[in-house]
Design brief:
Length: 207
Amino acid sequence: MMKSLSDVNTAFAESSVDDIIQHALELARKPVITTNFGPHEAAILHMVVQKKPDIPVIWIDSGYGTPATYKFADELIRRLNLNVYIYHPKHSRAFREAVHGDIPQVDTSEHDAFTQEVKLEPFNRAMTEFAPDVWFTAIRKEQTAFRNNLDIFTETQDGLLRVAPLFHWTELDLEEYLVGNDLPIEEDYFDPTKVLGNRECGLHTSR
């Protein structure tokens, strides 16, 4: 990119999501988008695949999703014809529960190890295999204190351009988009690596 990321973020601060996505795709040689098939994920997926239908969609399936999440994922994959790649932990949930028991208490070394095993390792494996130069994500500034300090365009520690087209959107903005485009909302989502809504799982903080 010729401009600094600060300049680019300033230039696109008031731009439409479509313009942000289009600009990022023009920069990209190997873009990917990640999803957890959470409550409002249909919005970002719908927006991006309209512009690049074959973009690889990376889903880290920890094995701890609710039945509603798996049904939602199946519906959205079929409806949007997503080019989805599913990554799992090296050990199944059944194996892990038999050997280590239930999900560890948050903010412990045991939970950190759990997060590494069920989310970060599969994610890092996916990123190594795809080696993208642009990563689309649905993170938004209002979600956590850490994310509030990011921006639409940021560079990860390993030089990957992370693009958050919905960065300035509110939950109400998302719900209006989903309703306006007749897209489903997943109401029963659970992330065992976060547990609490305002926690980071490490996927963004570690990059």
